[in-house]
Amino acid sequence: MNPTIEKLTQLGQSLWYDNIQRKILENGEFKAMINRGEIRGVTSNPSIFNAAIAKSNDYDSALTPLAWAGWDAEKIFWQLAIEDIKAACDAFLPLYEETNGGDGFVSIEVSPNIAHDTEATAAQAQQLWARVARPNLMVKIPATKDGIPAIRKSIAAGVNINITLIFSLKRYAEVMDAYLGGLEDRLAAGHPIDHIASVASFFVSRVDSKVDPQLPDGSPLRGKAAIANAKLAYDQYHQTFVGRRWEKLKVKGAHVQRPLWASTSTKNPAYPDTLYVDELIGPETVNTVPPHTLEAFKDHGKAEMTLMRDVDRAQQEIDQIEAAGISMDVVTQELEDEGVKAFADAFAQLLETIEKRRKSAASSLGPLAVPVSKRISQLEADSVPARIWKHDPTLWAKDEAGKAEVLIRMGWLDSTDKARQKMDEYLSFANEIHKAKIDRVLVLGMGGSSLTAEVFSSLLAAAKIDAPLSLAILDSTDPVQVAKAAEEYPPDKSLYIVASKSGGTAETLSAFTYFWKLSKKDGSRFVATTDPGTSLEALARKREFRKIFSADEMVGGRYSALTDFGLAPAALLGMDLDRLLDKADWMRRQCGEHVPAARNPGVARGAVIGESALRGRDKLTVLADAPLSAFAGWVEQIIAESSGKNGKGILPVPLEPLGDVNHYEEDRLFVYLRQTG
User: Fold this and answer.
1) What pLDDT does residue 376 have?
2) What domains can be seen in the chain, in order of their start residue?
3) Please, which of 61, 90, 218, 406 could form a disulfide with 393 given CB 3.0 to 4.6 Å?
């Protein structure tokens, strides 16, 4: 932990991060900041989400299927925001539990458009609480006149609340009273209060930005109003959380409502960039800082107990400002109004950006836009994503034999879990081969049994990543190709992986017979990858193959990428299997059981491809940037083998050279795999 932050934490103040972005949530940076002890919570607001979404393309892949489903801009925003908030809550959950609910909170704000609507604010606070469904969530409610009763209602309903846009001491007193009143209401209704948490976000630097221009040049009061105002607020806090009213709640497990210093980045370049952190350090407080302020404090901040110093002087400074003709009541009311408007403007800009991207994504479907939207809605209504995860065979088959077959082919859904259990086996085998100085591997297999190995090898080569050995596949009985493979992969330098799910694939066994003779029956040069109990497994044991990988029999060949068929070759190629499986698990979560169909990338893309085929566009033309061309072949295999049943099929056309648009019939759906995403 940074020593300055460590001391700050010891003094009783928690640093929260006034920032959230999908990129840092997904690339590990956010979790690393938590692990280093730099941040102990997160705050967000419409301006922060506007910067994250409108000023990047990080959310486009998530936004696209929502647009296809016909969602409007605001509905899309809440889906994207809640995803980020959930991810942040999950990242902070260990800290939340470690501190018994003292820290590890993540805040999401109600719509700024309802800042003056008590009932709508209270209703949305409970809705957000239910949708995020995390104990370390805080819902932000602005401290407007109409927001105060919504705060009390929300606390009484059991929702953790972060009260935002507090500028005046009068409003702060109302906020604390609303918190205590909400706890009292909850107790009176017979509900526990020991898990309720709340912070009061008292805005700081904007006060100086408003007061300073009204003071004469060179006035000693410049740069004093904000800190003085905050110190008086902290004094109010101490006066409120004592006495009979508080003690009655405390004995029932109530937590104090900590002051949170917000707007602590320095707006005036003449002031130190850590001014509003250094001068407001005290126990039972939070300071939420944007990225640049956090970095500045880590570098040269001062962690000293400053908040309770010179409280009398703070009152004198406020009195002097008032005496100079500046009404703090007017200043703080203007700041509250401006704050609400600023958030509303940012929210409007954000929705405008989302709407533009929504229209662009929807228009890419052309005449398919309406039927795809309807199809996704129907898939949601029929609970198709959840039924897939429940292995519901009726999605594919009506007869009993068909249902039975489906039930023994659904293992691909949790293939990453099983793969992690076999990780040591893969790595140990790869290490053995590398130590033996075997630098060539030839996979003998057809279709799904060999394609993943080819894709991995090709992707590494295209990316100019050196692998510890050369790997190729032989999926043909053509004499010319067999002879070429034998020349490039001779027995004295090579390992042959005989890959067949069924163990009886004729082409694969023919290739094996050829190379078995070529190797002079040297079993140490052969590996078998097959289902348990197949004839190939028996053959491998009899002929003393170097290794036998027993594949998951619950996974069909075309879905076997993340089983022995794909991962053993990946290990031989020196790929980072942990990272590979982490990426797969990320996509698994994106397509999870409880993800809406419109947000599920597999379901949404399936809806597009399926609706296209039903309307005559059954030629799926896959274009790809050169480094990804091998993946197009894998896509061809999985789609071609997965359709074509019951008289309905899709014809994949991978890597076809593009012609003039007039050369194509209206039977095409084009998919472009871009290296840049």
Assistant:
1) 98
2) 3-355 (3.20.20.70), 366-408+593-673 (no CATH), 411-589 (3.40.50.10490)
3) 406
Please report, in angstroms and rounded to a whole number, the separation of the first and last CA atoms in the chain.
Answer: 35
* One-letter amino acid for residue 625 of the chain: D
How many other β-carbons are positioned within 10 Å of the β-carbon of residue 673?
17
What does the chain come to in residues? 677
- Mind spelling out the 3-state secondary structure of 383-426? CHHHHHHCCCHHHCCCCHHHHHHHHCCCHHHHHHHHHHHCHHHH
- For 89-154, the DSSP string reads HHHHHHHHHHTTTSS-EEEEEPPGGGTT-HHHHHHHHHHHHHHH--TTEEEEEE-STTHHHHHHHH
pLDDT at 677: 63
The burial of 603, by beta-carbon neighbours within 10 Å (0-12 exposed, 13-18 middle, 19 or more buried), is given as: buried
- Position 441, amino acid: V
Cα angle 297-305-44, degrees, rounded to a multiple of 5: 45
Q: How far apart are CA 491 and CA 338, in angstroms?
A: 77
DSSP letter for each residue of 443-458: EE--GGGTHHHHHHHH
Helices and strands (H, E) in the chain, number of each type: 29, 16
Q: Which residues of the chain have pLDDT under 50?
A: none
Which residues make Cβ contacts (< 8 Å) with residue 375, sequence separation at least 6? Answer: 607, 610, 611
CA–CA separation, 344 and 321 (whole Å): 30
Query: CA triplet 630, 636, 638: central angle to 5 degrees?
Result: 110
CA dihedral of 372, 377, 380, 385, whole degrees rounded to 10: 10
Cα dihedral angle (162, 163, 168, 171), rounded to 10 degrees?
-130
Catalytic residues: 140
Backbone φ, ψ for residue 376 (5° rounding): -65, -40
> What does 471-513 look like in DSSP terms, one character per residue?
EEEE----HHHHHHHHHHS-TTTEEEEEE-SSS--HHHHHHHH
Contact predicate 294/24, CB 8 Å: no
DSSP structural state of residue 521: S
Contacts for 120 with CB less than 8 Å, ≥ 6 apart: 114
Long-range contacts of 572-575 (CB under 8 A, 24+ apart): 572/429, 572/430, 572/433, 572/441, 572/468, 572/469, 572/471, 572/495, 573/456, 573/457, 573/460, 573/467, 573/468, 573/469, 573/471, 574/430, 574/467, 574/468, 575/456, 575/460
